[in-house]
């Protein structure tokens, strides 16, 4: 059996003449946590809805656990749990009643449902408020109730759309911890977000969405390397000496810009600080500052979307 | 390729939940209180009137539904006026409310077809309306027995049961209308207003508009007697576009065994008829069968419209 639990090829969704999703290829392995990153309106939610069969793709094919979500929607939806962006529950019912309703829709027997609901609520730390009306729940509690629903249904694949949006930092951490637990249990998880640090901490791989396309798929480390070329950014400050002239002679330097007032910014493929320091001191310059850093993931992420934005 | 599984899976679950929601909602309690009060008032007035004016009648019980004492209208006309309001209260936020609460995409992600949601909503509403009407009907019978001191005859029962069924269909038309608006219009307040305007137009203004329109379509020629009949028939045809008119005709025919026709009757047609003699129940039903079918067709049509639109609707919106 193939270990690809999700396979999408050439996925396209057109609304009139505009393309919300434009030829996306995506494969997800079993037990993997894939982060779908991108700004709002990049096509993440549309892709998710197509994966679930809630929206029909204009072009392309999808296989979820070997099934087509448009042709066999019930089988696909049995195995896939979906937590929508800003999930809603029936406010006049308690958390437990809300779950009982979806359990009945899934065709679960009452006893089994009650047992599973107890377990699920326990796991998301909502046991003590399970019988309270959902109207009294905070945003974070609603999201956790949404996760409890996925647990109760024993989904093999969980698709979470912006699970942490609008949550305070503590709730976010809690929620991410729960999601990490899902993955540990062998659940395949797709998380969409526009925040890198959310995805970074729990995902094996990330897919960067932009303007309906996937610009990059790979591990977080690969992202840093690919987008940033692993380059070093060095800031030098020196008095009475033109560092620019010196830097251009050093091997591996790809760019030098003067920042004025005796400061320069140098981009290099390796750490050239020793060469710079030696050169400056030898030529009698006064070294004021010597700083080097690699591009952080956040910068890489921003850089990616800036570049993608410029291309378009 | 045929789609797998039944589109009706989950319908009963949704219907029962909807029904439970309606039963416990303050909205429903208020409107049922209104209906109960008006119904009780109408029946009480009718009983007074019957005591004062009727000495003997084989269908005394049915008079409870139709007799009116000024200024109150009869029970049947109260129902024709108020039941749409009940149906609209149940249905106006059926679909857009789920979007508003953001529960729609979560429910549709459950292993059920989209069809089940709308079917379930309609069935749930009909279930509640059915229970309410049955209660009302039993109350009527009970009040009649208590205050008139007479048990209803078999004919009374048969006719009032047929009336009950027709009333359910009539209310179904308005429920389907309210659901249709709730799928078409995103904001619940707007869809409620739209449904209420249709209700007002059909129950109050329609009977004022139709004579004018009929006069334009088939004007009366004073030298041609048949043009008067034509004008009347045009007006009646126009009036029957309104479900309230159809329901009024059905109620009149079913609750008054002596009435023979809902249209114009010529003297020649009355020849040999025993004026005031009751028709058999089935004959009465037969006369208004077109009206009943019309109401049923309107219900199906409105529901189908809502269904088609709902199936094509974007979930994310």
Question: Can you offer a commentary on this structure?
Answer:
The complex is a heterodimer of chains A (312) and B (317). Chain A is an alpha/beta fold and 312 residues long. Chain A folds into 2 domains: 4-219, 3-Layer(aba) Sandwich (Rossmann fold), CATH 3.40.50.300; 231-294, Alpha-Beta Plaits (2-Layer Sandwich), CATH 3.30.70.100. In chain A, 38% of the residues lie in helices and 30% in strands. Chain A has 11 helices and 13 strands. Chain A has helices at residues 44-52, 73-79, 95-105, 110-123, 139-153, 169-184, 196-202, 220-228, 243-249, 273-282, 297-311, and strands at residues 4-15, 18-29, 33-37, 59-64, 80-83, 157-161, 188-193, 205-210, 213-219, 232-239, 253-260, 263-268, 286-294. In chain A, α3 packs parallel to α5 (139-153). The longest helix of chain A has 16 residues, at 169-184. The mean pLDDT of chain A is 86. Chain B is an all-alpha fold. Chain B has one domain (11-312). Chain B contains 13 helices and no strands. Chain B has helices at residues 11-24, 26-53, 60-66, 75-91, 96-100, 104-108, 114-148, 154-184, 188-217, 225-239, 243-255, 281-287, 289-312. In chain B, α1 (11-24) packs across α7 and α4 (75-91) packs antiparallel against α7 (114-148). The relative contact order of chain B is 0.13. The model of chain B has no long low-confidence stretch (mean pLDDT 90). Chain A binds chain B through residues 45-46, 49, 52, 54-55, 71-75, 77-78, 80-84, 86-92, 101-102, 104-107, 146, 149, and chain B through 1, 3-5, 9-10, 13-14, 17, 21, 24-25, 101-113, 314-316.
């Amino acid at each position: 059996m193939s270990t690809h639990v999700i396979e999408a090829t050439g996925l396209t969704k057109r609304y009139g003449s505009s393309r919300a999703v434009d030829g996306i290829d995506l494969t997800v392995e079993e037990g993997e946590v894939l982060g779908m990153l991108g700004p709002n309106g990049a096509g993440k939610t549309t892709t998710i809805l197509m994966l679930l069969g809630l929206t029909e793709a204009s072009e392309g094919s999808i296989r979820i656990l070997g099934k087509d979500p448009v042709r066999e929607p019930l089988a696909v939806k049995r195995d896939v749990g979906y937590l929508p962006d800003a999930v809603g529950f029936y406010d006049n019912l308690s958390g437990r009643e809300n779950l009982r309703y979806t359990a009945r829709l899934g065709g679960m027997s009452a006893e089994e449902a009650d047992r599973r609901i107890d377990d699920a609520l326990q796991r998301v730390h909502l046991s003590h408020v399970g019988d309270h009306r959902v109207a009294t729940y905070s945003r974070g509690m609603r999201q956790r109730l949404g996760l409890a629903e996925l647990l109760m249904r024993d989904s093999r694949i969980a698709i979470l759309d912006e699970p942490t949006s609008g949550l305070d930092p503590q709730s976010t951490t809690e929620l991410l911890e729960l999601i990490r637990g899902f993955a540990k249990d062998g659940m395949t998880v797709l998380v969409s977000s526009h925040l890198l640090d959310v995805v970074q901490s729990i995902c094996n791989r990330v897919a960067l969405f932009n303007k309906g396309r996937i610009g990059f798929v790979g591990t977080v480390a690969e992202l840093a390397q690919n987008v940033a070329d692993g380059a070093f950014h060095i800031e030098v400050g020196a008095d009475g000496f033109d560092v620019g002239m010196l830097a251009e002679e050093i091997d591996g330097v790809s760019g030098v810009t003067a920042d004025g007032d005796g400061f320069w910014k140098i981009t290099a493929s390796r750490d050239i600080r020793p060469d710079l320091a030696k050169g400056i001191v030898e030529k009698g310059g006064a070294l004021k500052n010597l700083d080097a850093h690699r591009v952080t993931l956040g910068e890489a992420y921003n850089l990616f979307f800036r570049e993608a934005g410029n291309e378009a | 390729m045929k789609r797998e599984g039944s589109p009706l899976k989950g319908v009963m679950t949704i219907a029962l939940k909807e029904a439970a929601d309606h039963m416990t909602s303050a909205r429903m309690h208020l409107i049922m209180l209104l209906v109960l009060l008006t119904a009780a008032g109408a029946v009480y007035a009718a009983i007074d009137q019957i005591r004062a004016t009727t000495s003997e009648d084989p269908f005394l019980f049915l008079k409870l539904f139709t007799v009116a004492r000024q200024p109150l209208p009869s029970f049947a006309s109260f129902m024709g006026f108020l039941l749409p309001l009940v149906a609209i209260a149940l249905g106006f936020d059926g679909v857009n409310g789920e979007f508003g609460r953001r529960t729609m995409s979560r429910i549709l992600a459950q292993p059920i077809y989209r069809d089940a949601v709308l079917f379930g909503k309609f069935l749930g509403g009909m279930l509640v309306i059915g229970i309410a009407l049955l209660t009302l009907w039993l109350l009527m019978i009970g009040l009649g027995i208590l205050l008139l001191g007479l048990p209803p005859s078999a004919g009374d029962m048969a006719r009032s049961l047929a009336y009950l069924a027709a009333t359910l269909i009539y209310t179904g038309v308005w429920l389907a209308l309210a659901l249709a608006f709730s799928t078409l219009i995103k904001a619940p307040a707007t869809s409620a207003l739209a449904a209420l305007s249709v209700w007002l137009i059909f129950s109050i203004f329609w009977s004022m508009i139709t004579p004018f329109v009929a006069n334009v379509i088939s004007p009366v020629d004073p030298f041609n007697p048949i043009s008067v009949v034509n004008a009347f028939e045009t007006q009646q045809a126009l009036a029957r576009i309104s479900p309230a008119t159809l329901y009024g005709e059905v109620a009149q025919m079913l609750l008054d065994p002596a009435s023979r026709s809902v249209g114009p009757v010529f003297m020649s047609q009355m020849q040999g008829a025993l004026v005031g003699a009751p028709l058999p129940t089935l004959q009465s039903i037969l006369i208004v069968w077109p009206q009943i079918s019309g109401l049923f067709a309107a219900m199906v049509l409105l529901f189908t419209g809502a269904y088609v639109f709902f199936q094509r609707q974007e979930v994310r919106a």
